[in-house]
Design brief:
- By secondary structure, the protein is of the alpha+beta class.
- The chain has a single domain, classed as Pnp Oxidase, Chain A.
- It is about 20% helix and about 45% strand.
- It is globular, with a radius of gyration of 16 Å.
- The chain starts with 6 loop residues before the first helix and ends with a strand.
């Protein structure tokens, strides 16, 4: 049963629609298999040691896969990668197997999928987590990071994707 939103939840969601965010595909591979999900809740925490946080809904199938596998990659999408964002948001009907069969992936040393043409790719290990409301916050200690200056970015703002060009 889906509950109705309270007025506070409704106004919070409306306000957060104005918080622009990078679009990312977070991927994993390990004992529980390959999985990935589109997320906008990724943030740098510190560079000593290099650490990111990633927020994932606990009701998502990928949540428990990430939690068990521990090795993840954060693929920061480029401006022309909206279609892959929709695939990993579960909006196109492609299975995980079909998504990872697309010829757009490399793998890191743990076998975690890395998007070939991403604006940036970060591999790491979940070293800590906490829960708040419906989501878990995973703290990812970074093993490797790379970025490309020739790729624009993909942002999420007002419940739509927006391409950002390179200045």
């Amino acid at each position: 049963m889906v509950s109705e939103l309270t007025p506070a939840q409704h106004s919070f969601r409306a306000a957060m629609a104005s918080l622009s965010a990078a679009v990312n595909i977070v991927t994993t591979n390990g004992p529980r298999g390959e999985a990935g999900v589109t997320v906008s809740a990724v943030s740098s925490v510190t560079d000593s040691p290099p650490t990111l946080l990633v927020c994932v809904n606990r009701s998502s199938y990928t949540h428990d896969v990430f939690q068990h596998n521990r090795h993840v990659a954060i693929n920061v999408l480029a401006s022309d990668q909206e279609e892959i964002a929709w695939h990993f948001a579960g909006r196109t009907g492609l299975s995980f197997e079909e998504r990872f069969a697309l010829p757009i992936w490399d793998r890191d040393h743990n076998g975690v999928p890395l998007l070939k043409e991403a604006a940036a790719r970060v591999s790491g290990t979940i070293v800590d987590e906490t829960s708040r409301g419906s989501h878990s916050v995973f703290f990812v200690e970074v093993d490797a990071a790379e970025s490309r200056d020739d790729r624009g970015g993909l942002a999420y703002f007002q419940r739509n994707f927006h391409a950002l060009s390179v200045a």
